[in-house]
């Protein structure tokens, strides 16, 4: 079973949970603890997020056009961490920075394209 970490702007948590439910129904395991927790910003929350990325085979970055340049940027830290860790990285939505354009980063426009 492929394990997926979903990174997204926190205000899109409900949408990220919908993406997670879709992937679970297709047999993927979701490692993103933040989707079920009401975390506060803290050292422990950040450490848990990175541990969840470590447990994943792939990081799926939810990067909708409306949020491509918004939010606090935590998802971009997770994205970079996954790249450094040699993970498969997929952007769902808009490529919004130069790192999204790396040859080994996949960009898809809908969740149905995720394999």
Task: Outline the structure in words.
With 115 residues, the chain is of the alpha/beta class. It has a single domain (3-113), classed as Rossmann fold (3-Layer(aba) Sandwich), CATH 3.40.50.450. It contains three helices and five strands. A five-stranded parallel sheet has the order 2-1-3-4-5, with helices on both faces. Helix 1 (13-25) links the parallel strand 1 (3-7) and strand 2 (29-30). It is globular and about 35 Å long.
Secondary structure blueprint with pairings:
Blueprint: E1 3-7, H1 13-25, E2 29-30, H2 43-55, E3 58-63, H3 74-84, E4 88-93, E5 105-108
Parallel strand pairs: 1-2, 1-3, 3-4, 4-5
Summarize the structure.
The protein is an alpha/beta fold. It has one domain: Rossmann fold, CATH 3.40.50.450. The protein has 3 helices and 5 strands.
């Amino acid at each position: 079973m492929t394990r997926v970490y979903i990174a997204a702007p926190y205000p899109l948590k409900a949408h990220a949970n919908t993406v997670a439910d879709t992937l679970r129904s297709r047999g993927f395991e979701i490692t993103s603890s933040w989707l079920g927790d009401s975390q506060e910003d803290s050292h422990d929350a950040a450490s848990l997020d990175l541990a969840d990325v470590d447990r994943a085979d792939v990081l799926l970055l939810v990067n909708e056009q409306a949020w491509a340049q918004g939010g606090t940027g935590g998802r971009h830290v997770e994205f970079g961490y996954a790249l450094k860790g040699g993970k498969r990285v997929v952007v769902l939505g808009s490529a919004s920075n130069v790192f999204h354009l790396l040859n080994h980063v996949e960009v898809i426009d809908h969740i149905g394209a995720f394999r």
